[in-house]
Design a protein that fits this description.
Blueprint lengths: L2 E9 L5 E8 L4 E5 L6 H16 L7 H10 L7 H22 L3 H4 L8 E9 L2 H13 L4 E6 L27 E4 L1 H19 L4 E5 L6 H11 L6 E3 L8 H9 L4 E3 L6 H9 L5 E2 L8 H14 L3 E2 L9 H13 L6 E2 L5 H6 L5 E3 L2 E3 L12 H4 L11 E4 L4 E2 L2
Parallel strand pairs: 4-5, 4-12, 5-7, 6-15, 7-8, 8-9, 9-10, 10-11
Antiparallel strand pairs: 1-2, 2-3, 4-14, 13-14, 15-16
Helix pairs in contact: 1-3, 2-3, 3-10, 5-6, 6-7, 7-8, 9-10
Length: 402
């Protein structure tokens, strides 16, 4: 059996997705997510112009060799565009291998380590009372964990607070919108938010919060110390991760668990953080960290150092990636939690899938392979639409981390 075709499909059923579809000489197909939010066409071009021609004639069963061929065989390696393209190939090949074997992918990864995948939803609102109402809605849906984000008084827009409560997607405009940020105001409101959530819902509910790279290490340490009495499940992305020494400083000032990694694209981005136990959860994803093959390596390294998984799962990852993530989540021994932002009805129609939610858990498909497909005719009805993530400025006009 050989690869006879590799096709890139770009579609926008509410937001842009890039999908790679590989076909073999036996007629077996596999798909992989290749979406890089705000830079989708860069990956589409990388695949179409540089990777797809190299796949024709290769043995689809040689997943590891193909991964190394695309990684080691390119002088310019790593980076989000390259690793997202490799991830798409890798994921599609795992899909094919599962279909040929007649097994869901998680069975090829060692089988179940748990009955279901614990997920968390996003409760947000302009005010704290609005957030509390959203938390109640998720609790009513059976969620055991909820991320809470609220507006900051005096700021026109705040990260994590969306127009649609269930389908938050910040990449909306053909040019980046600009938001204004105040760390001082933010640090005042977040403890009030946590206190209100605990007062209403108690301590059985897991409560998460995303700082989104906005703070310095000492500011993050201060916030974590303030929130410790409210038992946060984690504080996500407290600082930009380029300077990883900063996480050591955070550790010195708070016992609040730290999660990071949704923008990481290789094991080398997180090796120090994991080895030195400077984080508690690694949030790398199938689509941005080299596919199932490479993400499993990251998770295995994390398992050796008491770091659990907590993969990114926002709406900028297609149902193809979510399905692949669930097959890993159900199998790895050090699973922690999975982010789960529901896709729109249009997206679910373009990407029919077998995974499902029930009582706080997601369950992977039992179909051979990943258990997800793409309706190409329907996808063609939703052409690409330029959409960029916002940018952030301080109140004096200086650029800041979004």
């Amino acid at each position: 059996m050989k690869i006879t075709d590799a096709k890139v499909i770009v579609t926008s059923p509410g937001r842009n997705f890039v999908t790679l579809k590989i076909t073999t000489s036996d007629g077996v197909t596999g798909i992989g997510d290749a979406t890089l939010n705000g830079r989708e066409l860069a990956v589409a071009s990388y695949l179409r112009d540089h990777v797809c021609p190299l796949l024709i004639g290769r043995d689809p069963a040689r997943i590891e060799d193909t991964w190394q061929y695309l990684y080691r065989g390119a002088y310019w390696r790593r980076g989000p565009v390259t690793m997202t393209a490799i991830a798409a190939v890798d994921t599609a090949l795992w899909d094919i291998k599962g279909k040929v074997a007649g097994l869901p992918v998680y069975q090829l990864l060692g089988g179940r380590s748990r009955e279901g995948v614990t997920v968390y939803g996003h409760a947000n609102g302009e005010t704290i009372p609005e957030v509390l109402d959203e938390v109640a809605r998720y609790v009513d849906l059976g969620y055991r964990a909820v991320r809470v984000q609220c507006g900051v008084p005096g700021l026109d827009a705040t990260y994590g607070v969306g127009k649609d409560k269930m389908f938050y997607e910040p990449a909306e405009t053909s040019r980046p919108s600009e938001a204004t940020w105040s760390t001082e105001r933010y640090l005042r409101v977040v403890p009030e938010l946590f206190a209100a959530v605990r007062d209403r819902f108690g301590y059985d509910l897991h409560v998460l919060h995303d700082i989104h790279h906005r703070l310095t290490p000492i500011e993050a340490g201060r916030l974590g110390s303030t929130l410790e009495e409210y038992a946060p499940f984690w504080l996500e992305d407290p600082v930009p991760a380029e300077l990883q020494e900063g996480f050591r400083l955070i550790r010195q000032h708070t016992k609040a668990p730290i999660a990071v990694g949704e923008v990481f694209n290789s094991i080398w981005d997180c090796e120090q953080l994991i080895r030195e136990q400077l984080i508690d959860y690694i949030r790398a994803t199938v689509v941005h960290a080299g596919g199932i093959t490479h993400l499993r390596r990251i998770f295995d390294l994390a398992a050796l150092h008491h770091v659990r998984t907590g993969s990114h799962g926002a709406t900028d990852l297609s149902p193809v990636c979510m399905s692949a993530a669930l097959h890993l989540d159900i199998a790895v021994p050090n699973f922690g939690i999975q982010e789960y932002m529901r896709h729109t009805e249009a997206t679910d129609e373009v990407f029919p899938h077998g995974y499902h939610y029930a009582d706080g858990y997601l369950h992977p498909s039992e179909e051979p392979g990943l258990g997800v497909d793409i309706d190409e005719k329907l996808a063609a009805r939703y052409p690409y639409e330029p959409a960029y993530l916002p940018v952030n400025r301080l109140m004096d006009g200086s650029m800041h981390h979004w």
